[in-house]
Amino acid sequence: MSEFWPALSASLALLSQGDDYLRGIIILSLQVSLTAVAIATVIGLPIGAVTALFRFPGRRVLVVLLNALMGLPPVVVGLVVYLLLSRAGPFGALGLLFTPTAMVIAQFVLVLPIIAALSRQVMEGMWLEYREQLQSLGVPPLGQLSVLLWDGRFALLTAVLAGFGRATAEVGAVMIVGGNIDHVTRVMTTTIALEASKGDLAKALGLGVVLLLVSLVVNLLAYLLRELSRLRFAD
Fold first, then answer.
1. I need a labelling partner for 146 at 20 to 30 A (CA). Which of 9, 27, 32, 41 fits?
2. Residue 118: which of 177, 160, 170, 75 has the closest Cα?
3. Which residue has the higher pLDDT, 216 or 3?
4. Is the pTM of this model over 0.70?
5. Does CATH place domain 4-234 in 1.10.3720.10?
6. Helix-helix angle 20-53:188-198, to 10 degrees
């Protein structure tokens, strides 16, 4: 504990001074995670909605698969993406390995099942409540889908925030596919691991404080959205 408080004080001083090294890492981290979550949202929400509303061959298998993939080991995802993007892999000619794009791909693979599975749960509950009304009004399938997506937007946003929380905390997969290259692919989680191993606790704690703040904001937003959704349905 004798090293903790001086290191924490030094880390807060670095953050307050706007250290360029830390600022660049924070910006890159948010860019990578937000991009991965945005792509996963565009793909994951329709998957969750279709799985909730429609019955088709293999639906139960897909539901089980989505739930199982929520717990994907990050290092396994990193290894698979690494093999796909390496020179000997099928996408090696694209030259994406050890770039921010490779990190986005790895985070996307981790986040997609979370958003799809959680949105399916939300939409399935809403479908049970709205189904008779929508069918009695003769609303077509695409119309039903759009109604549920709009009415469940607050609850669905919590699924997106859960995915964002997973993305920002990821270290294993992005370390493998990004390489933790200074000023190129170094993000908050990989920098914390690096600086802690070097003994630079001030920088490690500084980024740790930022990660904690991001987690706090994400959880606060998720809570507020759940409350808005609950109050809306209560009315």
1. 32
2. 160
3. 216
4. yes
5. yes
6. 140
